[in-house]
Amino acid sequence: MKDYAIGIDIGTTSAKVVLFDESGEVTAYHSKSYPLLAEEPGAAEQNPDEIYEAVVHSLKETVKKSGDKADRIGFLSFSTAMHTLIAVDDNGAPLTNSFTWADTRSEPFVMEAKENGLADDIYTCTGVPVHPMTPLFKLMWLKHESPDIFQKAAKFVGIKDYILFRWFGDWKTDYASAAATGLWNLTSLQWDEKLMNMANVTIEKLPEIKPATYYWESLSEEIGKGCGLGPEVKVVIGSTDGPLSNLGVGAISPGDVAVTIGTSGAIRTTTPEPILDPEGRTFCYPLTENHWVSGGPVNNGGLAFQWVHDLLEEKKNEKDSYEMLSKLAEKSPAGAEGLLFLPHLTGERAPLWDAQAKGSFIGLTLRHEKDDLLRAVLEGTILNLFDVYNLVKTQTAAEAEIKIFATGGFTQSAIWKQILADVFQKEVSIPENTESSCLGAVLLGRYAVGLTSQLHEVKEETKQYETIQPNKENREVYQELFRLYQALSQALKPNYKGLNEFQNKHKKESGQ
Fold first, then answer.
1. Where would I find the Carbohydrate kinase FGGY C-terminal domain in this sequence (predicted)?
2. 351 preceded by cis ω (within 30°)?
């Protein structure tokens, strides 16, 4: 019986491959990381061949760890990070690295679109906020900076498209990956001619768009033998990590809100039809034609905790140092003695959509101690997500019906989880399975190959193992603190451009 399935997640930092049984339990797992290349200001690239090798290696190792279950694997299904762009030649060989969502070198073209009034039209057409993460603007930048490469390119593709091309020899992309490029029309579900003209590309230079349920009937003999799988194993094209994470935690009904904090963070909800924000502050991507995921990504989640950890913790190599700092943060009261932290250390996506935004501590006094700084950082990341939540909750069910599902590395910190529950004043459910994108890919795959008739039927397979109750005593504290957070965030916003220019002009040389 082919009752096992594999989810493959091509993440920003690593490739993860997870084998699940029919009930959604993890039975084998392997991952392999790869570096992020930042050789010049604003750059955030990766080697596509390194990622390909990481995927194949992790798949091979997971199958090996599965033992006698390998013969029971019926299909593989993919998840991927959004907004990647690779230029390839006629043979499918990369002409560039993979430009990731974090690459901000196209910022001048974003500013131009905002200044000439095109930003609103782009958002309305695509559901993608206007930001340097978007391949639409990366294409403009590439044409300007490397016209020879731009001219030579036969295709412009994403990282998952590239891996599947090497497996099957044809260029295909899923709905959500296409949507994330900023070249896709959410009404027609096809590439948009006006946007392609803006990017100076033709439809021949883009992959063919397929629904997330599209699948190949069998693996090639080379890939199958190399990874220990039979040729009868199907391969589902899948979707992107955000929509699949919602599916993986069970947040696909009206009123379900998924919160993820890893290195970055996101907050998302699912609706039967696309919903856009009047001011273009939230994204809207398809999982299927009848399931649309809207919300907002933030740049600074666990990254902010890592920064303050490395800044304050002398024993950086101790495995439990993060836990020690979390315990220390518990000594500070809710509100961190009036110390606020704006967590925009690497610019910000939602809700500001400003690549030049800066982080800051506000309210520092002589009485503040290390525990207050730590708590302020943890609170600041949650207040930022709560700011996005206030946009998202208007797009879903009534406030009383909203349910919060949380995943990501932050769930290892007891105080961070409690702050989330207290700021949102909602019960927070933490799913048992932490690899929500991989599980979401498998659940989508089951629907794609006909093992379940409706996508929502698989929701019950995501088991909750922990719930965090909000502390009602902290309600007023965080309501007051959030009002200050919003006001100060807006007050500083007009100064980020000038501060960014000053920092670039007066930055210290490397090594000083």
1. 258-448
2. yes
- Asked if the model's pLDDT at residue 137 lies above 80, the reply is yes
- Facing residues of 222 across strands? none
Q: Are residues 342 and 392 in the same domain?
A: yes
CB atoms under 10 Å from CB of 47, counted, come to 15
Domain final residue pick, 209, 238, 267 = 238
Question: Do residues 479 and 412 share a domain?
Answer: yes
Tell me the one-letter amino acid at 416: W
Instruction: Kindly state the percentage of the chain with pLDDT values over 90.
Output: 80
C-alpha 160/C-alpha 172 separation (Å) is 9
The string of DSSP letters for 36-54 reads PB--STT--EE-HHHHHHH
Q: Helices (DSSP H) in 411-474: which residue ranges?
A: 414-424, 436-448
36/41 Cα distance (integer angstroms)? 13
Q: Please say whether the beta carbons of 380 and 342 come within 8 A.
A: yes
Structural domains counted in the chain: 2
**pLDDT bracket for residue 463 (50, 70, 90):** low
Owning domain of residue 85 = 4-238
Tokens of 461: 């397979």
- Residues 251-307 have pLDDT tens digits of 888 889 999 998 889 999 998 999 999 999 999 999 999 999 999 999 999 999 999
Q: Which two tokens stand for residue 455?
A: 């996508």
**Per-residue pLDDT tens for 4-42?**
999 999 998 899 999 999 888 899 999 999 999 998 988
CA within 13 Å, CB half, 261:
28
Q: Are residues 392 and 294 in the same domain?
A: yes
Q: What is the pLDDT of residues 327-343, one digit of tens each?
A: 999 999 999 999 999 99
CB 77 within 8 A of CB 238: yes
Task: Check residues 198 and 395 and name the one with the higher pLDDT.
Answer: 198
Q: What is the Cα–Cα distance from 61 to 454, expressed in whole angstroms?
A: 32
CA–CA separation, 179 and 439 (whole Å): 22
In contact, 83 and 101? CB cutoff 8 Å: yes
Nearest to 86 by CA among 144, 22, 159: 159
The tokens for 280 are 């273009």
Q: Are residues 258 and 158 in the same domain?
A: no
Say whether both 120 and 66 belong to one domain: yes
Which range (291-300, 391-400, 424-433) has the least confidence?
391-400
Q: Which of 47, 58, 48, 53 is nearest to 8 (CA)?
A: 58
Q: For residue 244, is it within any domain?
A: no
Question: Is 0.85 topped by the overall pTM?
Answer: yes
pLDDT value for 32: 97
